[in-house]
Amino acid sequence: MLELGIFAKTFAKPFPELLDTILSYDLHLVHFNMSCLGLAPMPDEIGLELCKSVHAEFAQRKLTMIGLSGTYNMIHPHKDIRQQGLARLAVSAKAARPMGTTLLSLCTGTRDPANQWQHHPDNAGEKAWRDLCQEMEKALELAETYDLTLAIEPEQGNVVSSAQKAEKLIREMASSRLKVIIDLANLLPEGETKNQEIILEDALERLAPYLCMAHAKEQRNNALGEGKLDFPYYLKSLKAVGFSGPVIMHGLKESQVEKSLNYLRAFL
Fold first, then answer.
1. Distance in angstroms (rounded) separating the CA atoms of residues 35 and 33
2. Which pLDDT score is estimated for 191?
3. Which domains are delineated in the chain?
């Protein structure tokens, strides 16, 4: 059965009060971000005692940290910035299990130097793909060292911009530690919703064996159900391919959470 969860940074509250807020919505799965602790999203250092404290706060409330954000620009045009990002990923990888999770979510990156989610025409080049593969091999070495799973997400602005490219990367990496997060909104060109059923069907046909998480997000910052995405079909299709993992809501304001939850729960 699909179970709903949420991005922790949906709530602009201090830790651990934000965990109490999540629990008040009867949610038990949390995708965490180090910014929720008042740190940088990818810190240069994460102390073991802090990790243990976070783990204890989750355990006290019977919450599960379903994943930790490990996003940096894996194909940044400047090699030194990529190296800095990888070093910070190593910090997060070392902290993940002590904090209570075995999954790090990644950003496959873009050649845009300022915004790791922004499309750049060079993303489609062979050099960008080679850089991604080299960087991902290093990330997978960290996953082996710390016994973790890494998750990529096809996004229009990134080098892995489609289900086809996600499938290609998984086959080239040939690692059971590399999985996929699917997000219907990110599979579609920005602002477009036509052909969403065809695009979703193709994505699931390619990626179903590798899925570890699904995201539920509307386009244009709407509450779930207020846009044009076909969430009933999305959830039905996930079930049809045997997916029974977490469905994590994000891209929401706190004021939109209750309405979004009520909408999605009607189709679970």
1. 5
2. 73
3. 3-265 (3.20.20.150)
